[in-house]
């Protein structure tokens, strides 16, 4: 199978940087088109009327964070002809799969936060969910990968 469209799912963590590095390197070697996806996670929206934090201002801040993170990755990993940017809002595990399907990705690249124990039981693992439900190959970079 030839990977022509690689979707790299990122956030602002060090684990994502490792995944982005691997995804961009693979994309460069294969001369693939890259899509970088940062899901604006609805569960991180904070509203506090006493401090003047509205739902709209919270969404705007999270979107800016997503756009800035994608900008940084693109600057760090130049040499790719075309990079598509995705900053949808939603729950990451579902949005990653939806965007991969809509964009017709051949491969999803993402990092793992290596949750274990109670944390994993309570919050689940985005990477695990994507692996179990994806219709295309998923490359997951482990927490310790350099």
Automatic annotation (TrEMBL):
Pfam family, one: Usp
Main location: cytoplasm
Stretches assigned to the UspA domain: 3-142
Keywords: Cytoplasm
CC per GO annotation: cytoplasm
Subcellular location: Cytoplasm
Family matches, as InterPro entries: Rossmann-like_a/b/a_fold (IPR014729), Universal_stress_UspA (IPR006015), UspA (IPR006016)
Cleavable signal peptide: none
Recorded family membership: Belongs to the universal stress protein A family.
Protein name: Universal stress protein
Source species of the chain: Niastella vici
